[in-house]
Write a structure and sequence with these properties.
This protein is mostly helical. The protein is built from three helices and no strands.
Length: about 80
Amino acid sequence: MAEVPDELIKLERSAEEERAKLAGLSGDAYDAQLRRWHKASEAVQAAISAHAAATCADRCEVEQAVKRALWHSQEDPTVE
């Protein structure tokens, strides 16, 4: 797998940040945050699919490379 574009890592980080914000919420606040997380997750999945198609790469491999790149970055995606 070639180097992962920074934009994919940023999108994945954003989705993880939205997921982390679910902690401690309930009711309408939880539902609203859940929608934000789903929207961010859909954006990263669409970008991964587009990148895989454009580079003729396996979509699952691209997704795993993005996750690995995020995990190995110095920033914790759940901390602001």
